[in-house]
Amino acid sequence: MNNHQEFGVHEIPKWNKWIILSIQHLFAMFGATILVPYLTGLSPAVALVSSGLGTLAYIVITKGNVPAYLGSSFAFIAPIIASTAIGGVEGVMIGSFMAGVVYAVIAIIIKGTGIHWLMKLLPPIVVGPVIMVIGLGLASVAINMAMNFNYELGVFVDPMLHFTVALITLAITIFSSIFLRGFFSLVPILFGIVGGYISAYFLGIVDFTPVLEAAWFRVPNFIIPFVTYTPKFSWTIIALMVPISVVTISEHIGDQMVLSKVVGQDFIKKPGLHRSILGDGVATMIASFLGGPPNTTYGENIGVLAITRVFSVFVIAGAAVLAILFGFMGKIEALIATIPTAVMGGVSILLFGIIASSGLRMLIDNKVDLGHKRNLIISSVILVVGIGGAFIELTENVQIAGMALATIIGIVLHLLLSGKEQSYGNYALFAGLDEKDNK
Fold first, then answer.
1. Closest by alpha carbon to 110, among 260, 265, 238, 279?
2. In angstroms, how far is CA 177 from the centroid of its own chain?
3. Which pTM does this prediction carry?
4. CB 315 within 8 A of CB 10
5. Which of 248, 276, 292, 320 could connect to 287 by a Cys-Cys bridge, CB 3.0–4.6 Å?
């Protein structure tokens, strides 16, 4: 991955390129953003609108400095399902709002204290493997999509047929990324999805019936507090939803590290971690006011940035506006929804892998020596705990699991084991970091 960029963060592409590049980001996030409400019983159209509005709010709060798209969070799938059984969708929205409040509180703490202490807690030997966990932890999601895993039945349905489509999609994406030149080299994801969709159609796994039946325009089924329901506070739902903020905040910090590496700008320093965390929290609060799932920064879209080298925040904003419009356009949403999960799975195999590779790159760039037992131990434990899906049950309804647990264990090992200086490598992660810049 070189440092060449096609469009910088504040550059505006010509309108025709702008639309195509924004559509590519829309396609990259669409599968996962729709999958979360599909699995949890929420409205896919509302999820689209809330992800678009959340992304625009994030861009405003970060002063237009961070090219990140926010979509439905996978981390909240299980808590949403459990909370729906207790208090319905309305109860879920209260829990989601409180999760957003946790983000805001942490953002205020970071603004008041600076982030140097946080960076000391998160040296490259902790952050690198955690980023790898973010990517590799999603590996099963990509493969389940690629091989058509039916979550209701708990089995793969026609796995070889769907995996063939996924591999065709992956091959077209890789070919487009490496061999195409000029503007075409900037939209390999779009080529992959279109090519994969065509192959899926000829293999008989595309159903156009929903498109024919859908209306051209329709208002999504918004769930708005004090308009469609009266909020009721539930400690049980709060206990289910709020602890997941630990997971998504850890993911957010990892994503900011990845973005900084990919773009070549220190987003932890400018606009500051407090702004990006607050943006994430506000996006989740916005979703909770509309009936959408909690939002989080999206690995798929970071992968698109890494491949295309198009970092324009205007392209991200364009994708957000399109998502909002598509939420109201029944036929277009239905058409995109007909894209088989195998196609999105094929693209995700590459995109999630790039996230994991970015974690490995962090260790290499910071010259962290895995020949030291301390570094070897910390990285090994983080990888196995995070990818293996270990969890600690604090109460019947509260648990720390997966990536959050791996991050905490990594930090504890870093603090307890001797030889801390070995974990910072060449201190490249701290280059230019000034405490006062983050207050």
1. 279
2. 22
3. 0.72
4. no
5. 292
